[in-house]
């Protein structure tokens, strides 16, 4: 076992060993300032001459040097200086002008071109953002030696030429063009993903990733922070990698964009489930110079958050740091009505819980990229989150038997939890001489801890408010640790201009240790007794090995990609005694299996393409769904796993059409089909509680037969006017779940839909208004997920009060979510200063009309239940943000230089 765990880490060291000792490319020349000069001499225009250089060699000993200055004579850094020469093209059968060397000037404006043919003629081209382009013909004053005597000093003197100071004139038009082209669209479509640039989203300013994801088409987020995509649970990534962070621990202002990969290729984890991947990409500076912001937010609960970010980038490294401190106090209610049909005499329960959750946490992320040279980059990043939450609940539960009241009980609950998370990432990238060939290696480590305790005080009264039985108190004390390691090695290389191969290896493991002690105070006098029989102390280890390969082929307007992934998964779980020794255990091993994927894309024209894709995915049971020991954190609603669960397999097909029909506009349509076999769902049965001895409902998991979903997703973004940007999306789908298990037959078939719209109005005086709306119809509960119960079992966070079935939406084969509608709004005022810094003031409100109520219904042969929940209705926030920075325009310049070359000019690649 130890050898198997070490092996995956050893392969990560391969690229560092291979490339740390490589000699410099012979095709590159390093200047004393470590600048790279791309060399490719023109063909021999004048030919060699005998007796010098040997064998008729070309006279490549020439050089030009000079200095680029502004109108005041001061040297300009990072100016692009290109040297061009006429070369005979054997394909076009004529001379064309090619860039044979390119250089970025030093801090003082110096540049140099070396190893030139002394007999050729050249043209120099100098350009930089904010300046007019300079062009001129140049040549060396060189004469070939004659006679028998050769004066080598004269030859050397004539082979080098000083071009002197070259002055560039400023151009205001160029600067204006740069500003216009730097704006990112809100919505983009990539090859295998949809990209949403959310840094301009006003309604989520000063909040967390929870509010950001609520604005994304096809994504739904419930009151517990559970995310669904096309009515299935996706895998959440941060910066393209798995994470231990929950979405309410990621500040919205640290997020640059959200990527939706609805049908991942074989390159991605096969356990990405039936809904694909939601990748949250954090902000990272891409331009040289420095920039940052600081901001402060105050909400209508008089809670605040403050934070900022700072980025600094040079030619050799990029450094960034983000920090935020949040205090929040959400409140709401949780109400449910349950009818129990499991007893000879039917009984009903009505519960109403009001809760307040006071929380505070800090988020920090820092890291840097080190550009060793133009082929090798090392990146190191770390994220640290630490916080606590304190929840106070007041619950009243009314009971009736044959519609006659049997009294009620009052419960007050106070819980305190603390958590911390550390995530680190080490990445290495090597770009080979061959264009498009690269090797990347990633190592990620995450570790999180949590502590929690809660006190429940119960009073039992008759309908006449008389004491029915003595007070009954319960206390829970828990602690958990969670760590994970992920190592991945990826290699890609082209074969000719039409073929490309991608391949890679991946290993990841997760270790969880947790205890949850239960105490009771039967007399309500503070004398607590540990109930060791129902307390939990456990650990588990999970590991995955995987390898994949993708082959891509381009033919005219067609693009084909086929892939195959080989992957397994193993679980090892143990129940521990008081001394931490194993007392019981279980192993679940999912053998290696193959997971294919295929993508076929046809480019109709420059703005339209259509794609068909298919993949087979896995939704393995998680540890808590397998854990075979009961959890009594809520004595009336016991949860227990099922170690006999089979993994759920998903076949996903999608037909996609994309049309960027005008500048700044995009229409996207997708028809998708998903078939899932052995779906994992909740089921409830009646059994005796080891806690009270009474008959209670146990919630566990079982494999149902299958589920099918077919849907149509549409989205459109367009600028209706220069002052009005409009985006709208809709998702129409039919879900069908078939289950013949646990003596029940269910055929749940329902058509559901969701629509979102976002309007941005740009008004005079730098005012911006944003208005968004979201409607979801009645839909089937996501079949392959267990939505949070809110009870905080297994030492979890909990919150929302009530616990058990009343605490949240459960995933049952026969259940659905009721319609929901919400409107958010925001207004922003920008102040721009002469030094290019800016100040913005944003006022935003969530659930403007107080219509956001999360309601659900579930049923079985034992019970039926309706649940209503709310949180933070009509929630206002005021945010002040100051942005500063000084950018070096060389990055933008390098992009624009390509467009300046025009005609037959081309860059010779190394």
- Spatial extent as radius of gyration: 33 Å
Number of strands: 48
**Sheet bearing the most strands, described?**
22 strands, antiparallel, barrel
Give start-end ranges of low-pLDDT stretches: 1-58, 173-182, 784-811, 889-910
- Approximately how much beta-strand content do the residues carry? over 45%
The portion of residues assigned to helices is: under 10%
Structural class computed from helices and strand pairing? mainly beta
Report the total helices. 7
* Mean pLDDT value: 79
Overall geometric form = elongated
- How far is the N terminus from the C terminus? 46 Å
Task: Walk me through the structure.
This protein has 910 residues and is mainly beta. It contains seven helices and 48 strands. It has a 22-stranded antiparallel barrel. The protein has a six-stranded mixed beta sheet with strand order 10-11-16-17-14-15, with no helix packed on it.
